[in-house]
């Protein structure tokens, strides 16, 4: 009896390597469990499929989500097999994304370092020497600064419309989530969203604010989202195509 009780209270492994059959073909994936998630998220990158689940997610729920997203998983995996990963070179003339547009990075030699400046579609960075790591760090900081300002503006716009009052808005660097919302009212938004079009940013903002009304993904939750974001299904699908599927 004691062993049985121990099995019931022992949490499942935080990470597992598994294989599932999707659309008639075996697919290997990494299963990660975390107490911070309330939903099941699927992410596909150069390392393959990663499935992030709540700590106590049932096998039935997991199987249902995988089968429901089977076509998406197969298509994304096939795309990665032929996709060549191009990493930013962090040098003069590099193209970088910003709010759905493309900026040209201009590295300017200077006797003194200075804040980055946006002129039209050019992002100017003044450096004393062209160290790529320092350039990357400076651009990342600029992204985060822009994200913090914009995200707070969008939350301030949508919160009154949805009759909610988040306690605070913070940036997130999560690898598997665009955003999250805690029971205490903290809204976390991934700073990398600043690279995406405004409508996608707004969708994530609305999605997380809706959790202040419904802390789940029930039909009632999606009704809250739809009231202020009628095209949410389109934007949700676009986010999924960019590498993150949340259900």
SSE layout and pairing:
Layout: H1 2-9, E1 15-22, E2 25-34, E3 41-45, E4 48-54, H2 59-68, H3 70-82, E5 95-98, E6 101-109, E7 114-119, E8 122-127, H4 132-162, E9 168-172, E10 179-181, E11 186-190, H5 198-210, H6 219-228, H7 232-241, E12 244-246
Parallel strand pairs: 2-4, 6-8, 9-11
Antiparallel strand pairs: 1-2, 3-4, 3-12, 5-6, 7-8, 10-11
Helix pairs in contact: 4-5, 5-6
Polypeptide structure, described:
- This protein has 247 residues and is α/β, with parallel strands linked by helices.
- The chain folds into two domains: 2-82, no CATH class; 95-246, Metalloproteases ("zincins"), catalytic domain (Zincin-like, 2-Layer Sandwich).
- Helices cover 38% and strands 29% of the residues.
- It is built from seven helices and twelve strands.
- It has helices spanning 2-9, 59-68, 70-82, 132-162, 198-210, 219-228, 232-241, and strands at 15-22, 25-34, 41-45, 48-54, 95-98, 101-109, 114-119, 122-127, 168-172, 179-181, 186-190, 244-246.
- It has a five-stranded mixed sheet with strand order 1-2-4-3-12.
- The chain starts with a helix and ends with a strand.
Order of helices and strands: HEEEEHHEEEEHEEEHHHE
Name the shape in a single word: globular
Q: In the CATH hierarchy, what is the architecture of the largest domain at level 2?
A: 2-Layer Sandwich
Instruction: Tell me, rounded to a whole number, the average pLDDT.
Output: 88
Mind telling me the CATH superfamily name of the largest domain? Answer: Metalloproteases ("zincins"), catalytic domain
CATH fold-level topology of the largest domain: Zincin-like
């Amino acid at each position: 009896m004691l062993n049985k009780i121990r099995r019931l209270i022992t949490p499942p492994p935080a990470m597992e390597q598994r294989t599932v059959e999707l659309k008639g073909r075996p697919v290997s994936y990494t299963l990660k469990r975390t107490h911070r998630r309330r939903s099941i998220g699927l992410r596909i990158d150069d390392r393959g499929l990663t499935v992030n689940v709540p700590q106590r997610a049932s096998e039935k729920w997991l199987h249902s989500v995988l089968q429901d997203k089977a076509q998406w998983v197969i298509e994304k995996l096939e795309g990665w097999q032929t996709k060549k990963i191009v990493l930013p070179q962090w040098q003069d003339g590099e193209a970088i994304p910003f709010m759905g547009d493309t900026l040209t990075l201009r590295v300017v030699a200077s006797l003194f370092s200075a804040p980055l400046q946006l002129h039209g579609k050019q992002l100017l960075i003044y450096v004393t020497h062209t160290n790529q790591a320092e350039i990357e760090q400076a651009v990342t900081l600029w992204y985060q600064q822009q994200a913090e300002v914009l995200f707070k503006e969008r939350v301030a716009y949508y919160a009154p419309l949805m009759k909610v009052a988040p306690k605070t808005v913070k940036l997130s660097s999560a690898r598997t989530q665009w955003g999250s919302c805690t029971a205490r009212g903290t809204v976390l938004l991934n700073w990398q969203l600043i690279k995406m079009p405004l409508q996608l940013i707004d969708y994530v903002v609305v999605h997380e604010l809706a959790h202040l009304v419904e802390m789940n993904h029930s039909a009632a939750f999606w009704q809250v989202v739809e009231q202020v974001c009628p095209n949410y299904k389109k934007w949700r699908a676009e986010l999924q195509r960019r590498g993150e599927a949340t259900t």
